[in-house]
Amino acid sequence: MSDFTATCPIPFADYPSVLMAHGGGGRLTGQLIEKLFLPAFANPFLSQQHDGALLEINGQRVAFSTDSYVVQPLFFPGGDIGALAVNGTVNDLAMCGARPLYLSAGFIIEEGLSMETLWRIVQSMSRAAEAAGVQLVTGDTKVVDKGKGDGVFVNTAGIGIVDHRLTIAPASVLPGDAVLVSGDLGRHGMAIMSVREGLQFETTIESDCAPLAAPVQALLDADIRVRCLRDLTRGGLSSALNEIADASHTRIEIDERAVPVREEVRGACEILGFDPLYVANEGRLVAFVAPDDAERALAILRAHAPGGEAAAIGFVQPGGGSRHGRVTLKSRIGVIRILDMLTGEQLPRIC
Amino acid sequence: MSDFTATCPIPFADYPSVLMAHGGGGRLTGQLIEKLFLPAFANPFLSQQHDGALLEINGQRVAFSTDSYVVQPLFFPGGDIGALAVNGTVNDLAMCGARPLYLSAGFIIEEGLSMETLWRIVQSMSRAAEAAGVQLVTGDTKVVDKGKGDGVFVNTAGIGIVDHRLTIAPASVLPGDAVLVSGDLGRHGMAIMSVREGLQFETTIESDCAPLAAPVQALLDADIRVRCLRDLTRGGLSSALNEIADASHTRIEIDERAVPVREEVRGACEILGFDPLYVANEGRLVAFVAPDDAERALAILRAHAPGGEAAAIGFVQPGGGSRHGRVTLKSRIGVIRILDMLTGEQLPRIC
Fold first, then answer.
1. Residues 6+ apart with CB under 8 A from B327
2. What is residue B130's predicted lDDT score, i.e. its pLDDT?
3. Who's near B339: CB < 8 A, 6+ residues apart?
């Protein structure tokens, strides 16, 4: 037995190598983080298991986050890898309750990428940064041989400042809290998949890719008691709810009829065999707020969140013992079913 | 003429697509930054043209930097992509005169990478972070299809704090300043190239990959008037000197006999047709210091910098009008030659 099989906590016999699903945002991504990254880099920041780390610099709370973007195709209805790379990290900072300020950008370019494509992506990042109120202040470019990359991969990291006294984190969620989503779900994932599969609908499905810093700031400015925020990217609503229920030792009950999903998204999901509750969004969040603030919070999200279709979709309940079945969904016909973590690979290279 | 050819300031006819040399750290990388990235993201932080951005958060000066790592092979004598990714960003922060504190890590993994390889890289990052005194506080993992990546690419971004009143930047360099290097040059690049080319020497050339935060802190603690620091990565000493001479409107004169290069590195360079002054290092810096502080600074670097072979290699002179010929080298036989920026692709995928 090598050192590795003796020490690595990932079941080596089951997973001798990395699968696409390890990057899908579901159960295997969770296993990779929990069993490989967390033990190696053990520190109190990482174990917050948040969309970013909350640091303190000279008495100022600061959020720090990063994401790499490997979406294919690079351009899609409603966005492109550049806008995604800016909004994705802006949103991760906003989910920490921070006001995003500064981004870095790292480009890994495949030799032969057309200069025009790079220019269009960079221009798109510039526009997205301006719209989100952030500045792109430092960067790096690497080029890899033809056939060793895929056009371009973009990494962004971001810094934001936290100007309130709330602890916005999964562990702050309490029984009784209301669960709100900021808009209709599933558009980003289905926009990408429709292009890849060559599906044509009467209405083109456009990605919901957008910055969420403004609606979060509006909630905070109105003194809403925000417990937790999470943007609904890889793994969709279901994975986010499961992670939060797990971390807060609660149960979450969702009413399927209340979850906004557009007709064309529902149609595309049916054709391609996806469940919209597992599909990635890039401009949608779930907010957990104190019960008394739910109505005001909903009105604020309807006024400030992209899409304008915010909805209250459920409540938090006291947690039980088992990890299994923490999130339940009352379906359209009244059946209650368990909403589990995404297992396996659903939508590869979605962001 | 498309919008692109009309607006993009990169000469489109000459460079319709991205070449390996655009990532090599030489003239074409400079053109990409100056003509494509800077205009798109115009702001005062980027135009510092430093190894990172200097920000101010709640009255505290903070440095922020990022780099992606695409080195091949992933493991090489003296290091691996994990150690490189930690030390590289630690060093970029140190070159801003900052004390590195926090890193993010973004992994782009090619489907099929062995879990053992990933585990070894992550363990190496953990050890490097501990050695450099930084914490890895937030991260992200993406997986791309087999054949669309190359094992693994790692991005790190970092935050450090600046606890002194100096302005350490290319523009602070003054005529008369002494030019010091912190150790022998060319080992990282030649370690990688020797492996790739299958060269065998009596002594294996080991990469100089190491953190430079401690020697920088030692210079600052001793109140050395540090004008500018630069780690000698892609493009090597020559490219760094040219960039700094350009930004400070000075000329720099180097004495080749004073530049420390190990015998085996010189030999490998001769066999492979490289000039050690253009070869990448990953644990070496050039420091510009006030003339009166040069001797003390040299003693501090000899005591604290990895390698222990720090040397004073030249002086800064008043600048002339032309950009060309700003850096000159007095060779071993007394001939003075112009030391130009790296042109074209010298060492691909070195970091």
1. B238, B241, B242, B245, B251, B252, B253, B254, B338, B339, B340
2. 96
3. B238, B241, B242, B254, B277, B327, B328, B329
Domain boundary among A143, A161, A179: A161
Residue B28 lies in a domain: no
Do residues A204 and A135 share a domain? no
Q: What are phi and psi of B80, to 5 degrees?
A: -160, 175
Residues B78 and B206 in one domain: no
Q: Are strands B53-57 and A135-144 parallel, antiparallel or unpaired?
A: unpaired
Domain boundaries, position A291: 170-338
C-alpha A251: how far from chain center: 21
Collect all residues of chain B within an 8 Å Cβ-Cβ radius of residue A33.
Answer: 141
The phi, psi pair for B164, rounded to 5°, reads -140, 180
Determine whether the interchain pair A116/B32 forms a contact, defined as Cβ–Cβ distance below 8 Å.
no
Distance (Å, whole) CA B39 – CA B119: 40
Same domain, A108 and A228: no
B36: how many CB neighbours lie within 10 A of its CB? 20
What is the mean pLDDT of the segment spanning B158-186? 96
Euclidean distance between CA atoms A284 and A233, whole angstroms: 8
Contacts of B74 in chain A (CB under 8 A): none
Given a contact cutoff of 8 angstroms between Cβ atoms, the answer to whether B346 and B274 are in contact is yes
Whether the ipTM is more than 0.85: the answer is yes
Point out the residue among A5, A23, A109 whose CB comes nearest to the CB of B23.
A109
